[in-house]
Amino acid sequence: MSNNKPMPVATEISAPFWEGLKARRLLIQQCNACAQWLFYPRRHCPACLAPDPAWREVAGQASLYSYTLTRIATLPDFADEMPQALAVVELAEGVR
Ligand SMILES: [Zn+2]
């Protein structure tokens, strides 16, 4: 198994999410106007279009919504870790 795997690249919008994970905290955005939880990171709430949603830590309670085991590596870098398990998790806050 290679230790030289591709890593996510933080953008200006997603940086707080990745920094939270480095600190072992799960941070996602919540709209300040309508309280809608958002995932993936965005500049505006998709429900009410209010700008600048807040970053908040979530409890981390979730359920497995769906998963698959891949037969073909998603990138050549992961060919030595087959099968890959890809999952969608639904947080208690309602985002997947
Ligand atoms: Zn909103």
Please report the total strand number as a whole number.
5
Shape: globular
The structural domain count equals 1
Low-confidence stretches: none
Share of residues in strands = 25-35%
What distance lies between the first and last C-alpha atoms, to the nearest angstrom? Answer: 29 Å
- Number of helical stretches of at least 4 residues: 1
* H and E order: HEEEEE
Biggest sheet character? 3 strands, antiparallel
> What ligand molecules are bound, each kind once?
zinc ion
Rg calculated over all Cα atoms: 16 Å
Q: How is this structure best described in words?
A:
This protein has one helix spanning 15-22; strands at residues 27-30, 37-38, 54-57, 62-70, 84-91. Helix content is 8%, strand content 28%. By secondary structure, it is mostly beta strands. The protein is built from one helix and five strands, in the order αβββββ. It has one domain. The model has no long low-confidence stretch (mean pLDDT 94). The structure holds zinc ion (ZN). Zinc ion (ZN) is lined by residues 31, 33-34, 36, 45, 47-48, 50.
